[in-house]
Design goal:
Elements (H helix, E strand, L loop, with lengths): L2 H9 L1 H11 L8 H12 L5 H12 L5 H8 L2 H22 L5 H5 L12 H10 L2 H13 L5 H16 L5
Helix pairs in contact: 3-5, 3-6, 4-5, 6-9, 6-10
Length: 170
């Protein structure tokens, strides 16, 4: 096969690939490994990347390759920082509201937030007393940071301290 024949054969491949990608099942899950990184990081102490990938696919219906998982685990500083990007604004809002609290102390406490208020009357009172910005920050931190096991958050500390310390935690 000549180079000209190869180029002619490849000419239709690109458009066919793009056309197929538009009709195929969406599999690109960019950012998913970052969203799950703290849990992948924790699970990796007892499971291989392949076992984590298999669990996610079989038990949760999430396709995340073992190669992608290994890549994330091989660069924990990068992935902790990407994960922290998602919660940093919320943490700063909450810390700003309490001037005596340093972010590095706040983020690595065993337990911090109270349980969600379910009583409608009490919930309305909390909504009135707590500024909307702080309420938003609490929800983000409760759902993305404090849901991570305390031991795993402590293991994240060295990866985030330079970042927090460089800004005096505030």
């Amino acid at each position: 096969m000549t180079i000209k024949e190869i180029k002619e054969d490849l000419a239709g491949v690109g458009p066919k690939l793009l056309s197929h990608s538009k009709s195929a099942e969406f599999t690109a899950r960019r950012g998913l490994v970052v969203e799950l990184f703290p849990f992948i990081f924790g699970a990796s102490e007892r499971m291989s990347a392949k076992a984590i990938s298999q669990f996610l696919e079989k038990e949760q219906g999430i396709k995340l390759s073992s190669v992608t998982i290994n890549k994330a685990l091989n660069d924990p500083a990068k992935n902790w920082n990407l994960y922290f990007d998602e919660i940093e604004n919320a943490a700063r809002i909450f810390v700003k509201d309490d001037r005596h609290l340093k972010m590095e102390d706040f983020l690595f406490r065993k337990e911090y937030f109270w349980k969600r208020v379910k009583n409608p009357v009490l919930k309305a009172a909390v909504d009135v007393l707590v500024p909307a910005e702080v309420g938003w920050a609490i929800n983000i931190l409760r759902g993305k940071w404090f849901v991570i096991d305390w031991e795993i958050r402590l293991k994240a500390r060295p990866f985030l301290e330079h970042r927090l310390g460089g800004r005096n935690g505030k």
